[in-house]
Amino acid sequence: MTQNKSHKAAQTAADLIVRNLEAHGVDHIVGIPGAKIDRLFEALEDSPIRTIVARHEQNAVFMAGGIGRITGRAGVAIATSGPGVSNLTTGLATATSEGDPVLTIGGAVGRADLLKLTHQSMDTVSMLRPVTKYSAEIGAPAATSEVIGNAFRAAESPRQGGVFVSVPMDVLNSEITEDYPVMGNRNAVKAGPAPEDVIKEAAAALKKAKKPVVLLGMKASKPENADAIRAFVKQTNLPVVGTYQAAGAVSRDLVSRFGGRVGLFHNQYGDYLLDEADLVVAIGYNPIEYDPSLWNRKSTRPIINVDVVPAQLDNAFNPEIELIGSIALTVQHLTRETGALTSGAALDKILEVYRASQKAAFAKAKSSQQGMLHPLEIIKVMEDFVAQDITICLDMGSFHIWHARFLEVFRARQMLISNGQQTMGVALPWAMSASIVNPAQKVISVSGDGSFMMSSMDLETAVRLKSNLIHIIWVDQHFNMVRIQEEKKYGRDAAVAFGPIDFAAFARSFGAKGINVNSVDSLKAALREGMETQGPVVIAVPVDYVDNPALMNPLPELAK
Length: 560
Known about the structure:
Keywords: Thiamine pyrophosphate. The protein is α/β, with parallel strands linked by helices. It has helices at about 15-25, 40-45, 55-70, 85, 90-100, 125-130, 145-155, 170-175, 195-210, 225-235, 270-275, 290-295, 325-340, 350-365, 375-385, 400-405, 425-435, 450, 460-465, 480-490, 505-510, 520-530, and strands at about 30, 50-55, 75-80, 100-110, 135, 160-170, 210-215, 240-245, 260, 280-285, 305, 320-325, 390-395, 415, 445-450, 470-475, 515, 535-540. About 35% of the residues lie in helices and about 15% in strands. The protein has a 6-stranded parallel beta sheet. The longest helix has 17 residues, at about 350-365.
């Protein structure tokens, strides 16, 4: 076992990087060592920062992204040169698409070898530039604090995202002979509200509208933004629709104004509300969450865009009024300027039908196969266990559509979903992040049997960390979300089937508790056992996807 040193003879650039991480308030880093980056891991041995060794670099970035999403401060992941850094790509693309602040640091061959065909030489700065907000190399020890400081600022400034810093091995090992400053968080920029005259213009448009609807996006689910949005909805009484990533922004007391979550397919009552609206107020919305061409069928209808940065214009998303600044402060000012409205009642009938349809869907849900569960049977059981302090982390698959449409959550950032890159394998690493940030709280993560196997090697990490999580696997031996779309398009599926795994035995082989269930009662018992267990629990549920085609079917109202 590595022993900590009480002192060092000389300070290196690696030590200066660590001092910058400490100054920025980093508590945890996740990564995998290697010869080109091991000096940095060695320096971290003398730091209060907790180093977590992952089993795959992609999962390390997912974990850092989860920390970033939950805390709003950049999570940090470290990888060695060559394939260690190239394995960061998917995690960084996901973080940048989702708006999650992440700083990654990668090793590199020495400066003299950067352009040679030598072991693990790779232009990683250029490779990762398209999937990051900032990608740079520390070319000399004197530039260390500057590059790290600017990387943090890029990761955490609007819109937040992933950044990458490459450190050649000879730079990392270089002795620091001068007292270079560290770049902490003292220069963090705080935005104010949008200009008052533009807020007045938006309020006037809202007062004039006959059927305005609020569309919430991923930034609406930040806690401070959610608080302001709830006050706005309570004051104006407007109907509200959310993208999948806005989950939790609407509080329980406002559920009567909530028209559901929309995304992927234009076939929900929330879509019907948006179709009927004569004005849409988009708050914290990014087009990557749900294509504007799907929800905005009226090109001339005015849109008010409330965000931290101006919209990327789209033929179907060209806002008439833009309120750019702090979302929370802007919405607070807009609430005061707008006051109470009566126009929200114009769409009440759609809200009533939506709520009735949700109840009816749960009432008729039943598996057609013995020993299997219908998706809504699983979600109904989960509802009894999902308290306000439990975080839900969803992987990518058709199961995430069922959760997004039917599982109610009322805390901002309570449900984490990837709908930017729609990345498979994120749920387990995100669950570990949630457990790291709030160790006393239970976390429930959900994967399909396909997506689970893309990050399952880090179940060992969860066991080592004693992560307080329950991971539910929906088992059907297919990449099911691909399957339903292939069947819709081609009348058959192709290349989506794979073999069975005993997931309970698989989990036990890692040192986790593993439970196979085959009924509603056994799922309830397994969840009760999971809630009482310290450390990771894996529950495998055979799922009957008989009603999956309905996920893509249009509502009668939308088929006209």
